[in-house]
Amino acid sequence: MIELAFLAILFVVALALGNRILPWFGNQFECFMEEQLIAIGLGFGALIIGVYILGWMHILSKTAIIWLLFLSLLVGRTPLIKAISSSRARFKEDALKFGMWQKAFIILLVVIGLFNLIGALAPTTDTDGLAYHLAVPKYYLQQGGFEYNPIMVFNWPSSIEMIYTIAIAISDDSLAKLIHLMFGLLSAIAVYILAKEWFGKQAGIMATILFYAIPLVGLESGIAYVDLATTFYVTVGTNLFMKWYLKDEGTMLLSSVFIGIGASTKWNGPITILILALFCCPKIFFSKKRDETGWLARKPKKENGLVGKRLIVVLMFLLIASSFSFMWYAKNYALTGNPVAPFLGDKITTRDWGPENTIAYKSSVASLYLSPIHFFLIPWALTMHGAPFGELTYLGPWFLMLIPLALLIRKWPKAAIFIIISSLIYYIAWFATSQQSRLLLPSLAILCAMCGWIVTHERFAHLKRILYGALLLSVLLAIPFTALYNGKGAKVTLGLETREEYLERLLPDAATLHWANKNLPEGSKILLVRENNAYLLDHKYLWGDAAMQGIIDYKSLGPGSLYEELKRNGITHIIVNRAIKCSDPKDESTHCPDVKELLETPITKSRLLQLYVQNEVFVYQVI
After folding, report:
1. For residues 45 and 48, what is the distance between their CA atoms, to the nearest angstrom?
2. Which residues of the chain have pLDDT under 70?
3. ∠505-507-508 over CA atoms, to 5°?
4. Which of 187, 209, 460, 571 has its CA 20 to 30 A from that of 355?
5. Which of 256, 277, 268 is nearest to 321 (CA)?
């Protein structure tokens, strides 16, 4: 439970730092909750940049991170104290009133939140968290900064991983999971702020309830992914953008920062930047308004040349929003020669990466349903079952229940039109590039604001009991998904089993990885074949999949030359997870090395010594 104390410290540090930074933008916010929400986002953004700088300076360590946190708190202590002293009076202005139905929803959300907390406190067992969201920060801490690694996941945008680096340095992976849980809660508050701003307090309350009840949000709250952090930054940034776009408030600069940080958390993040840039076109060329703000909280001095001024505003938005992603592209270019590695690896010369690796990488990504009929059917599939889209849960029925009802409302506010159009563009981009349900979360958060507007609209006042009853039932039915996924961590959270016992109960490969940590000599380097839970491994390692590294080319190496290649790269041991099967190991584009060719030929058999096996996960020594 000490991780909760560490989380509180991180929260206070980010809040203090954010309150120091926020006045630089010159914006004033009537809503104290919104002001502090923006401050906490800016604070974590500053910490991301701080860890990034430590990484390039090659002084990334627990000591350096503690100094970073201490200095951040020192810098922000005065504005934080000022904010706290004014909080009581300003919170009264934001007081909420809950009706009977909303109180019932909140009770269910508390239950969901408790299961989410149980899941977050347990050790990490999720695939992507163990493979790279936590493994990448652990590697950087071991190396003392940014160093080249041939595994391609080290080249993806890693802004939230910088915060996870802090977590691992001062605690462990449970703190990283708690940070992701925190971003889920902050996202819920951001949804409330957005919906309240455009549709009223009651719509804000319902929007928050519907967002946090999404089963996928519950699943994400108990794992060390980054999607909830992306959702937080994109939701806050979109609201700030809408204020500039629809109300001519001077929030464009703040919007560009939040959208930029959100975009730098995932490879597909720049999609949000492009969507909002598209909205700027009508405003640039067709708006007849003369008295409008720029991107700061002030009016232009001259009224002539507004098109040129607007172009400058939009270009500055693109430049600042993109800069957070460009810092990762710069890192990739410096270490691999390709700013967007592993993408375009067949077009741009990339260190230890060739066209055959690009083919293998593309084949490792789930095939997309790109037919026109699927474009219209996927929302139904996402609602009813999420497994084909990368998650073992679903999105909840309220989007399909409520969004069609909007067609019965005659007059839509501009905010609703903005949300629908931006969500449709986001869906088209998602449909064409990924089709993983969790990548829809930023768009779903914004759609929840519209759902809150619909369910509280006077047009459906006579259907209030039916609508609220159906939604309450759907939220109630969503609880088992969260309980089943996050509840499995109850024993270890309550101290009824050890960390090792928990991991070995849930992960077939954990026992073998624990054995390797305890028994293999210091300085060992392990080739991981069909085994990606690298965070649990304390030794140096290299992924064996051709989709993720280009050092070992299985197609061009025979058994004898493969052995020499292993020795040349310092591989002393191999861990093979034979429980994971390739769909077709003879396929030219396969990303799984053929275990039979790799390990079971007469030549390789004579040069490999089996040391350990558990649950079909083998450890071999290269001799």
Report:
1. 5
2. 89-97, 282-310, 360, 362-369, 386-388, 390-393, 553-560, 581-605
3. 95
4. 571
5. 256
Q: Which sign does the torsion angle of CA 320, 321, 323, 327 carry?
A: positive
3-state secondary structure 330-399: HHHHHHHCCCCCCCCCCCCCECCECHHHHHHHHHHCCCCCCCHHHHHHHHHHHHHCCHHHCCCCCCCCHH
Q: How far is CA 440 from CA 214, 274, 302, 389, in A?
A: 12, 16, 42, 11
With beta carbons less than 8 A apart as the criterion, state whether 503 and 493 touch. Answer: no
Q: Are 560 and 602 in contact (CB under 8 A)?
A: no
Helix (H, G, I), strand (E, B) or coil at 527: strand
Q: What is the rounded CA–CA span in Å between residue 81 and residue 76? A: 9
Distance of CA 15 to the CA centre of its chain: 21
Asked whether the CA dihedral 418, 420, 423, 427 is positive or negative, the reply is negative
- Residue 317 vs residues 244, 251, 501: alpha-carbon distances, Å: 12, 11, 50
DSSP classification of residue 389: G
Q: Which amino acid is at 2?
A: I
46, two tokens:
């500053």
C-alpha distances in Å from residue 151, one per residue of 353, 357, 441, 595: 10, 11, 27, 20
DSSP state letter for 171: S
* Joined tokens for residue 180: 């992701």
- The DSSP call for residue 291 is S
Token pair of 466 as six digits = 């039916």
Element (H, E) at 540: strand 540-543
- Cis previous bond, 404, omega within 30: no
- Using CA atoms, how far apart are residues 489 and 505, in angstroms rounded to an integer? 11
Beta bridge partners of 620: 574, 610
Q: Are the beta carbons of 154 and 132 closer than 8 angstroms?
A: yes
Residue 460: DSSP 8-state: G
Residues 231, 183 contacting (CB under 8 angstroms): yes
Helix (H, G, I), strand (E, B) or coil at 298: coil
Whether the Cβ atoms of residue 386 and residue 393 lie closer than 8 Å to each other: yes
Residue 473: which residues within 8 A CB-CB, separation 6 or more?
none
pLDDT at 297: 47
d(CA 213, CA 457): 21
Cis peptide, bond prior to residue 270, ω within 30 of zero: no
First to last CA, the chain: 44
CA distance 452 to 206: 5
Cα–Cα distance, 539 to 135 (Å, whole number): 12
CA 281 distance to own-chain centroid: 29
Residue 519 amino acid letter = N
- Cβ pair 360, 594 in contact under 8 A: no
Please give the structure tokens belonging to residue 395: 């999105």
In one-letter notation, the amino acid at residue 417 is: I
